[in-house]
């Protein structure tokens, strides 16, 4: 069985990292078949102390941006497969097994899956329904795009064959939409797949902070600029935010 390396970038995530890492103790894939690598962007809180209790490796980020953090982790990984998620996300218990099943096909070089919004208890029913509906639409659009050959390899739920990831030197240092841009560079090297069963529960805190409509417009605009216009934006970055 192939070994998988899970890379998780962190920055001031002491409120979330333990829940995220505990979710990996519930994976149906045996613990000795995957490693967890935390790449920390110089947190000022207890993130690394907490992460050290659960992760196999905790390293300090040396490359720029969230894509650079994922690169740092990938380049020290032992697994044949590199999986990425975020510190405020909770993977489904079958997440790693579902990812590995796809890579049994030697033609597959990257996999992505669905995102389910984590709704705060205090959110009202109307707003909660709105988030759930928009995520349903977004997953459907990503799935439709994948069928046409346009992949959004969301960093919160993606996996790569390490050999190919290394060959293209991982993520480019972009201000946004690096998960779309990397898919364009991967495309000539093999097949990618959108796997409905590979689910990650996704924090909506970034969306809530910016505002639902503004965030949705920003993502659509940014992905269009990178995917269809071929731009490689260097200015503007919403990484390393504090959420209180």
What's the topology here?
Blueprint: E1 4-10, H1 17-23, E2 34-40, H2 47-51, E3 57-60, H3 65-74, E4 81-84, E5 90-91, H4 95-102, E6 108-118, H5 125-147, E7 158-161, H6 162-167, H7 178-186, E8 191-203, H8 205-210, H9 212-227
Parallel strand pairs: 1-2, 1-4, 2-3, 6-8
Antiparallel strand pairs: 4-7, 5-8, 6-7
Structural overview:
The chain has nine helices and eight strands. The chain has a single domain (4-227), classed as Spore Coat Polysaccharide Biosynthesis Protein SpsA, Chain A, CATH 3.90.550.10. Strands 3-2-1-4-7-6-8-5 form an eight-stranded mixed sheet. It is globular and about 45 Å long. The protein has 244 residues and is α/β, with parallel strands linked by helices. Strand 1, helix 1 (17-23) and strand 2 (34-40) form a beta-alpha-beta unit.
């Amino acid at each position: 069985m192939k070994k998988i390396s899970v890379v998780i970038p962190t920055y001031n995530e002491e409120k979330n990292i333990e829940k995220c890492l505990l979710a990996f103790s519930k994976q149906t894939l045996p613990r000795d078949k995957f490693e967890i690598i935390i790449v920390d962007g110089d947190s000022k809180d207890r993130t690394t102390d907490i992460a050290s209790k659960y992760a196999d490796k905790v390293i300090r980020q040396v490359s720029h941006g969230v894509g650079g953090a994922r690169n740092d982790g990938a380049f020290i990984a032992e697994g044949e497969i590199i999986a990425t998620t975020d510190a405020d996300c909770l993977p489904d218990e079958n997440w790693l097994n579902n990812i590995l099943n796809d890579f049994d096909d030697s033609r597959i070089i990257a996999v992505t899956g669905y995102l389910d919004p984590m709704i705060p208890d205090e959110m009202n029913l109307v707003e909660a329904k709105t988030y759930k509906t928009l995520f349903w639409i977004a997953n459907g659009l990503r799935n439709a795009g994948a069928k046409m050959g346009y992949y959004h390899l969301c960093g919160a739920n993606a996996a790569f064959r390490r050999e190919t990831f290394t060959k293209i030197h991982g993520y480019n240092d972009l201000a946004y939409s690096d998960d779309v841009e990397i898919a364009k560079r991967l495309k000539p090297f093999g097949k990618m797949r959108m796997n409905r069963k590979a689910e990650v529960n996704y924090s909506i805190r970034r969306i809530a902070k910016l505002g639902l409509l503004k965030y949705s417009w920003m993502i659509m605009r940014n992905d269009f600029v990178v995917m269809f216009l071929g731009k490689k934006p260097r200015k503007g970055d919403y990484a390393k935010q504090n959420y209180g």
